[in-house]
């Protein structure tokens, strides 16, 4: 097994950056986090490979300053797998590419049945990667050599994979599709925070009553604050099921809370005062949450459309199989051709009059890329018109 050294000093970053700058072609980049172990999504290892330079493994916490690396490779194409997962962690370090090639996204557009990194490497290069450490705690120090080898192999083959997939994109006439998708990933704004994130508590559906929901909210908030302080994943401190059990038990005292057998976890007993204070805060709260989330601008579930908006229901039922058929013709998953949410929104509130041009404008306003509009606007317009007219009338109206 090859020995891998981890770079953990700024001076060594500068030297590595010089070697990477002297390399050739795209730069493969990957990130290892400690999801499920730490509260933050910070990078605990950054792997970089470039032909003519080799593999470099960087330890972000002690380094802090990555300006030399950014200056060396920022203007090059970066090859990442599932780039949307890694870009936020890289940006926290001041590392940002001008352009990317996302091997997972390319594999999806090409219709590969398996799109995990190991599967794509195997399908394109015939090389099998071990995935033994993908869910490991990468905040561990020192990192074992077997983990470092795994991390290095994640980038060592990525440029070769990129070249194979690029050739496939040319063969299938999807190079422009991919270019637009890559640019969209790079330019996508972060999602705004959820208005009521505590509602994601697993098992919350078993809690009844606004006062009980207020207690669940306060317990979730207390756990979140403590997890942030400790930089520990919230579920490792107190699992969701334990918080919900505490709400359902409705304990009358701190001792009664401690006696709830399901109330377990790393901090259930040691932070008992914290949890009891949260329960009391929920019981005293003046602003009680609604039984159901308001949902902001979310649409009703499609199963309710036939009662609430029959015309929209007919449009969606006509358009969905038509878009699915188009995706099959293109050899890609339907959600990569057009997201279900985009189709639902344009079906719920279509443009007037319904034409390929007006539908295309509506799709673009909802974030669809140019290639997606070109592939689906006519199909959707035909389906919408056909949902209220006979086949001959639909053909004439949508033309």
3D structure, described in words:
Strand 3 (45-51) and strand 4 (54-58) form a beta hairpin. The chain has 399 residues and is of the alpha/beta class. It has helices at 10-21, 60-63, 67-73, 83-92, 103-109, 117-125, 145-156, 158-172, 175-187, 210-230, 234-237, 240-249, 254-258, 272-284, 305-308, 310-330, 334-337, 340-348, 356-365, 370-386, 391-398, and strands spanning 6-7, 24-32, 45-51, 54-58, 77-80, 99-102. It is built from 21 helices and six strands. A six-stranded mixed sheet has the order 1-4-3-2-5-6, sandwiched between helices.
Give a summary of the structure in a few sentences.
This protein is an alpha/beta fold and 399 residues long. The chain has helices spanning 10-21, 60-63, 67-73, 83-92, 103-109, 117-125, 145-156, 158-172, 175-187, 210-230, 234-237, 240-249, 254-258, 272-284, 305-308, 310-330, 334-337, 340-348, 356-365, 370-386, 391-398, and strands at 6-7, 24-32, 45-51, 54-58, 77-80, 99-102. Strand 3 and strand 4 form a beta hairpin.
Layout: helices, strands, pairs:
Elements: E1 6-7, H1 10-21, E2 24-32, E3 45-51, E4 54-58, H2 60-63, H3 67-73, E5 77-80, H4 83-92, E6 99-102, H5 103-109, H6 117-125, H7 145-156, H8 158-172, H9 175-187, H10 210-230, H11 234-237, H12 240-249, H13 254-258, H14 272-284, H15 305-308, H16 310-330, H17 334-337, H18 340-348, H19 356-365, H20 370-386, H21 391-398
Parallel strand pairs: 1-4, 2-5, 5-6
Antiparallel strand pairs: 2-3, 3-4
């Amino acid at each position: 097994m090859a020995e891998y050294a981890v770079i953990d000093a700024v001076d060594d970053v500068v030297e590595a950056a010089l070697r990477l700058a002297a390399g050739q072609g795209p730069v493969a980049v990957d990130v290892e986090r400690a999801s499920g172990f730490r509260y933050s999504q910070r990078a605990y290892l950054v792997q970089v490979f470039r032909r003519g330079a080799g593999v470099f493994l960087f330890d972000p916490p002690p380094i802090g300053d990555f300006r030399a690396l950014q200056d060396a490779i920022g203007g090059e194409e970066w090859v990442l797998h599932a780039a949307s997962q890694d870009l936020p962690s890289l940006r926290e370090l001041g590392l940002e590419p001008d352009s990317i090639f996302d091997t997972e996204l390319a594999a999806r557009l090409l219709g590969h049945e398996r799109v995990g990194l190991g599967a794509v490497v195997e399908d394109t290069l015939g090389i099998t990667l071990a995935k033994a450490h993908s869910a490991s705690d990468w905040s561990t120090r020192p990192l074992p050599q077997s983990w470092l080898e795994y991390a290095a192999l994640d980038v060592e083959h990525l440029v070769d994979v990129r070249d194979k997939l690029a050739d496939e994109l040319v063969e299938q006439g999807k190079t422009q599709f991919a270019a637009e998708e890559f640019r969209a990933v790079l330019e996508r704004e972060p999602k705004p925070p959820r208005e009521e994130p505590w509602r994601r508590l697993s098992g919350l559906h078993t809690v009844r009553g606004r006062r009980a929901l207020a207690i669940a909210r306060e317990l979730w908030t207390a756990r979140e604050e403590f997890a942030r302080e400790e930089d520990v994943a919230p579920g490792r401190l107190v699992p969701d099921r334990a918080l919900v059990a505490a709400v359902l038990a409705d304990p009358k005292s701190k001792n009664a809370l401690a006696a709830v057998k399901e109330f377990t976890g790393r901090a259930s007993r040691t932070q008992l005062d914290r949890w009891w204070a949260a329960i009391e805060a929920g019981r005293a709260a003046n602003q009680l949450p609604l039984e159901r989330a308001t949902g902001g601008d979310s649409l009703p579930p499609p199963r309710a459309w036939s009662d609430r908006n029959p015309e929209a229901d007919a449009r969606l039922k006509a358009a969905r199989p038509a878009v699915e058929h188009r995706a099959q013709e293109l050899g890609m998953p339907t959600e990569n051709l057009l997201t279900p949410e985009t189709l639902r929104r344009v079906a719920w509130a279509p443009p007037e009059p319904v034409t390929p041009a007006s539908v295309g404008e509506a799709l673009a306003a909802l974030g669809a890329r140019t290639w997606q509009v070109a592939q689906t606007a006519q199909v959707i317009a035909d389906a919408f018109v056909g949902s209220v007219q006979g086949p001959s009338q639909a053909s004439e109206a949508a033309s």
